[in-house]
Amino acid sequence: MYASEQMNDELQQRVQRGMTLLDKEYPGWREKINLAYLDLSSGCDCVLGQVYGHYIEGSHEIGLVMTDEEEPYTPEEAAALDSHGFNSPSCSCEELTEAWKQALGGQRGR
């Protein structure tokens, strides 16, 4: 397996974890996603932003972040966001956005 294929597989696993968590925490969340605007570099247009209004609010609502919104994330919180595909220091925002679009099956934006 090539390094890029391995990275894509890992990204897809993280995204699947994030989707499973959202299915549990916010049933029907997929209806709020507009793929035409999906952009993981944007706090408002990322998955959590589209579902909860903003990345920071969403990260708290799904229980991955417990620190005050004014405080930086702890290393554990950052790792949890990464492991669920909401953020990833190991790839670009464009790659992460594409992984979410692929996982969502190429649904059209609303």
If you had to describe this structure to a student in words, what would you say it looks like?
By secondary structure, the protein is mostly helical. It has one domain (about 5-105). It is about 50% helix and about 0% strand. It has helices spanning about 5-25, 45-50, 55-60, 75-85, 95-105. The longest helix is centred in the first third of the chain and has 23 residues, at about 5-25. The chain is globular.
Short recap of the structure:
This protein has 5 helices and no strands.
Output the keywords.
110 residues, mainly alpha, 51% helix, 0% strand, globular
Q: What global shape is seen?
A: globular
Helical content class: 40-55%
Put simply, the count of helices is 5
Order of helical and strand elements: HHHHH
Distance between the termini: 36 Å
Backbone structural class? mainly alpha
Write the layout of secondary structure elements.
Blueprint: H1 3-25, H2 47-52, H3 55-61, H4 75-83, H5 93-103
Helix pairs in contact: 1-5
